[in-house]
Every structure is written in structure tokens, then in C-alpha cells.
Amino acid sequence: MSVAGNLARIRSTLPDGVTLVAVSKFHPPEIIREAYDAGQRIFGENRVQELTAKQPLLPHDVEWHFIGTLQTNKVKYIAPFIHTIQSIDSVNLLKEVDRQAGKRKRKIRVLLEIHIAEETSKHGFTMDECRVLLGDGTFSAFPNVRIAGLMGMATFTDDTEQVGREFRRLNAFFEEIKNDRPPGDAFTELSMGMSGDYPIAVAHGSTMVRIGSAVFGERRY
Ligand SMILES: *Cc1c(COP(=O)(O)O)cnc(C)c1O
User: Fold this and answer.
1) CA of residue 109 relative to chain centroid, distance
2) Cα(23) to centroid(ligand 1), Å
């Protein structure tokens, strides 16, 4: 199947209002261009060096999302152009994104990453940490970032019931936070679901899926 064919097939299964982020990590600009030519505008990358190499080679209306572990000392390289950072997993990182966005007179949209998987290797705030930081005003202290929602990754397992439970828990937490935000606040995105589990994520309220291999094929590392 072609990239365009894959995109069309995936899009046809996504309900209205669910955004598709095409995860292009490890794929060359020519292949990303195929997706672009098929109408895709939102792409996700997880390594700073790879993203800063590709970004100038693709059209300027691409909306780049950062979805990987981000070291604070590398924020400055993506701050000039990044649209959304989905993987905010510490207050320090948020502070640096705010600082770098301010320097460039930009506002950067961010999602808070919440740890929902069993594996300890996955990053993110716990729900309790997140509640505290939202409640005590820590997260509101940064004028150049816009906290637009949450991101989470389920455990990598064939146990679809477990995956469903994890997504259901994150969705409930998302609703809880959303209800506490001031009216008109742009806290609207729940980013969950990848190639192997996005139908389950969508069934549990995902508003944004991050799909790599089902669009571009297997990655060669
Ligand atoms: C790589 C990656 C994806 C996409 O994974 P696929 O299984 O290829 O769809 C989604 N989210 C994050 C955070 C990733 O690192």
C-alpha cells in the first residue's frame, strides 16, 4: 500500500474531530513529502536533531509536533518553529519551553504527558502530580505556553483489555481536568493511540492519534 493509500484508509476510520498526527520519525523527507502531497499537514517527530534536519526541507505550512523525550538544553533548537510539544514531562521542561518561546515572541502549544503504562520506562507525570501542579498554579506561571491537553501511551501489550483500561483512566482524568479549567480555556486535546492501539484509544475518547508505521511502513533503525 502507498503512503497516500494508508492515509486514506486510516482517515476513513477516524471519527470527525479526531486529528491524525503522522509520525514520520526515521523516514526520509521524500516519504514525508508523499504524505504532504496526499493532504497530510501534521507530522510528529521524536528526536531534535532529526527534526531540525528535516524541517527546512519540507513546506512551511507543516505543523510539527514533538512527541519524544526532550532535553531542556535542546528546546532552543526547535522553539523557532515547533507547533506543539506533546511530551512535557517535568516543570523544568515547561519552564524552558516558556523561556525559549518568549525569546522568539511565540506561544507554543503543549500537552502534558501522563504516565499510564505499566512500564516504568515511559515518561510522564502521575495523575496526582498533575493535579497538584494544576491546582497550585505552577502550570499557569508560564505565559508563553498554552496547555492544550494531555498525552499518554498505553502499555505495549496484546492485552487489549488492559490497554482499554489505561485509556479509559486517562480519559476520565482528562474530563476531570477539563471541567476544572476556566470557561473558554483551550484545554481540548487528548492525544492517545498509535498504530497498534488507536481504534481502542478512539473508542475511549482520544481527540488525537499519533500513527507512524501504519502510515509509512516499518521503521528501519
Ligand atoms: C513512535 C511513536 C508513535 C507512533 O508509533 P507507531 O506504532 O509507529 O504508530 C506514537 N507516539 C509516540 C510517542 C512515539 O514515539
Assistant:
1) 10
2) 6
